[in-house]
Write a sequence for this structure.
């Protein structure tokens, strides 16, 4: 049966890989970027979901990151990461939840991060917002427990996307390390010892969204080669 899948932040990077995977499986996929559905804008999110029909799979993928020592993190920076990474996932989840409950069928998967499980230096806003996104999935999973709806999160380490390219550029700028050394430092931050490819995250999302994953609810799937064991 063809499903309607919405992947927020689906224009590039991990979101585009997730959209491609569902499309290849024969699903109908919508992959809005910020222009089509700004997940921080309550009215825009409401209007977007009102126009798309019954959603079978919601992937909360839209995300932003920045980095600074906590003592130098501005309130704007903190808020902007929370707005997209946590509040954005909440607003989109809220729009699809009632319909999924009525139809007794649905999958919600949030692309969190290893930073949804552990604290990393210079990422207070990102880490706290990803913990919040994981907390949101856990709360929703408790509400839908025993129904045909599930809510889970995937928690990848560094993935080869624009977001990671920006992190590499920042390391280069701040430390003078060349880009290869900066990438190696990010790769070494998990036992995987390399960057993930977006398609590996897409695989994990597709797994949690499968009909056969009906018993998996309120879980986090960590993709880091075995560093965080949950
Ligand atoms: N890259 C990593 O190492 C990594 C690791 C773990 C988790 N993640 C998470 O994975 C997700 C995707 O990351 P990525 O690396 O693919 O990032 P990316 O290449 O920077 O792409 C980010 C995507 O999010 C969208 N977006 C940003 N703000 C938005 C908003 N307000 N409303 C709607 N869409 C918005 C962007 O849309 P536009 O193109 O319209 O701007 C874009 O499609 C994020 O949640 C990120 O935190 C990434």
């Amino acid at each position: 049966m063809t499903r309607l899948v919405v992947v927020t932040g689906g224009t590039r990077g991990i979101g585009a890989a997730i959209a491609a995977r569902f499309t290849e499986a024969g699903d109908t996929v919508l992959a809005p970027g910020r222009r089509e559905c700004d997940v921080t804008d309550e009215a825009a999110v409401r209007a977007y979901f009102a126009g798309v029909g019954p959603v079978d799979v919601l992937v909360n993928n839209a995300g932003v990151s920045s980095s600074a020592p906590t003592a130098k993190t501005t309130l704007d920076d903190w808020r902007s990461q929370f707005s997209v990474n946590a509040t954005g996932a909440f607003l989109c989840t809220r729009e699809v939840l009632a319909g999924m409950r009525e139809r007794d069928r649905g999958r919600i998967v949030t692309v969190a991060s290893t930073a949804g499980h552990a604290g990393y230096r210079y990422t207070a806003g990102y880490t706290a917002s990803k913990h919040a996104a994981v907390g949101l999935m856990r709360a929703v999973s408790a509400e839908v427990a025993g129904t045909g709806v599930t809510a889970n999160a995937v928690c990848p380490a560094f993935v080869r996307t624009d977001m990671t390219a920006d992190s590499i550029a920042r390391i280069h700028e701040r430390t003078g390390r060349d880009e290869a050394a900066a990438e190696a430092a990010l790769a070494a931050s998990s036992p995987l010892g390399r960057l993930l490819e977006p398609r590996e995250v897409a695989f994990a999302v597709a797994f949690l969204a499968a009909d056969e994953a009906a018993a998996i609810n309120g879980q986090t799937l960590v993709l880091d080669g075995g560093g965080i064991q949950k």
